[in-house]
Design goal:
By secondary structure, this protein is of the alpha+beta class. It is 24% helix and 17% strand. The protein has a seven-stranded antiparallel sheet. Helix 1 (24-34) packs antiparallel against helix 3 (55-64). One of its GO terms (cellular component) is mitochondrion.
Length: 408
């Protein structure tokens, strides 16, 4: 896969502007070096923009979408070793040493440019709505997020503490908290797709990424020779013909998840999957394959172009919520870990009663993607921005806990 990366620009450099590795030893040396460093602030080029906070993704970015890379990153043994590497990296990112990147230098996450970008992301039109919070025309980071501007690292003791920061009270009010028939946005995210009548099984085509409920909900990994396996399979079948809404979380966004509806947590499940796999259709060029020297249109911030596909192969967490409003039936929240952001932490347990807008988990270390799955027969009216989702990860964030849809 390394050999299949073209030598011509832009593939002669990583999306961060560093030298592209050309053999596996150099790649492993680069991995080892990154294990003791936090992600630095880089936001000057399109490649940096798409991969900010994803240093391992940047090292593998071009090789991910080569024919060999698309095979390699689906292999269970490769993902097992990557899991070990990223677990060690996660241990560092939760340590005090990782807070070294929380500084005000040009590559620090507390630099004026970095803070301005984070605040701007949080303050897109109609996303800061509480009139009781002092947010003027030039809001500051500490106005939006719980932090201490007098502290050298704003009070964050690690990189992970910074990336999982919380909003100030009142910044993200819950839409119609007493109306159980209204669904709120579970993550601060950009709408990617809205699909109705989703199939239980769907085949992947060269350039298509159809949703397959059996894959998303892990039915392809269930054994049907036990009562537990059969019951789990029956529960998945209940969603055939239902609706899926998907949204993308960028690295600059808020990374905690909130309950889209009020109800009881029926089931929590973690599915181990891939980390750097992409949709097979991304490997093709206008004339043949990568081996002919042609420059393919590879995603400078892969796997952004594989959003739908990642819901079915990536490491993910499932939270089934039996809604208090019986017209909604059971709603499934699916958190999908992309690249090194694959530690999906669920903070609720089976049997817990959750209120709409209540925190239920988080992504550590950076941005990712998520889905909401609704049963067939549940007629929902979504906001226009959700209806327009066209697969792009670029666009305006919808505020977490904001109005997303309601029962018709």
């Amino acid at each position: 896969m390394i050999q299949q990366v073209p030598h011509t620009p832009p593939y002669d450099q990583t999306p961060f502007g560093g030298a592209q590795t050309r053999n596996w030893k150099d790649l492993l040396y680069a991995f080892n070096d990154q294990l003791s460093k936090g992600p630095i602030w880089l936001y000057d080029t399109p490649g940096q923009l798409g991969l900010i906070g994803f240093p391992f993704n940047a090292l593998l970015n071009w090789s991910m979408s080569t024919p060999a890379g698309l095979v390699a990153f689906h292999r269970p043994n490769v993902n097992s070793h990557l899991r070990n590497i990223l677990t060690a990296y996660g241990d560092f990112l939760t340590s005090p040493a990782s807070a070294a990147v929380l500084n005000s230098s040009s590559t620090g996450w507390l630099s004026p440019k970095a803070l301005e970008a984070i605040v701007s992301t949080a303050c897109q039109p109609s996303t800061v709505t509480d009139t009781h919070v002092e947010v003027d025309t030039s809001p500051r980071f500490h106005h939006i997020f719980i932090s201490n501007p007098q502290h050298p690292t704003h009070g964050f003791l690690s990189w992970d503490a910074f990336i999982t920061r919380r909003f100030q009270p009142g910044i993200r009010p819950i839409a119609s908290p007493s109306d159980d028939g209204m669904i709120v946005n579970a993550c601060e995210s950009t709408p990617v797709a809205l699909s109705r009548g989703v199939k239980l099984h769907a085949e992947f085509w060269v350039k298509g990424q159809p949703y397959s409920l059996m894959r998303i909900l892990g039915g392809d990994q269930l054994g049907v020779d036990t009562d537990e396996g059969r019951q789990a399979l029956d529960q998945i079948i209940l969603f055939e013909g239902g609706t899926i809404y998907q949204g993308f979380l960028g690295a600059l966004s808020y990374h905690r998840w909130h309950a889209p509806v009020a109800g009881v947590v029926e089931k929590v499940r973690k599915i181990e999957g891939t980390y750097f796999a992409g949709c097979p259709g991304l490997a093709f060029t206008s004339r043949g394959g990568m081996e002919d020297g042609e420059e393919g249109k590879l995603d400078p911030s892969a796997p952004d172009g594989s959003q739908r596909y990642l819901c079915q192969v990536g490491t993910r967490a499932l939270v089934y919520i039996r809604a208090r409003d019986t017209r909604l039936g059971t709603v499934v929240f699916v958190a999908v870990g992309m690249a090194e952001v694959s530690s999906c932490e669920v903070t609720v347990r089976e049997g817990d009663v959750v209120e709409k807008g209540q925190e239920i988990g988080m992504f550590h270390y950076g941005g990712s993607t998520h889905c909401l799955i609704f049963e067939p027969g549940v007629r929902l009216k979504f906001i226009e921005a959700a209806e327009r989702g066209n697969g792009s990860t670029k666009g305006q964030n919808l505020p977490v806990n904001g109005y997303l849809a309601e029962i018709v």
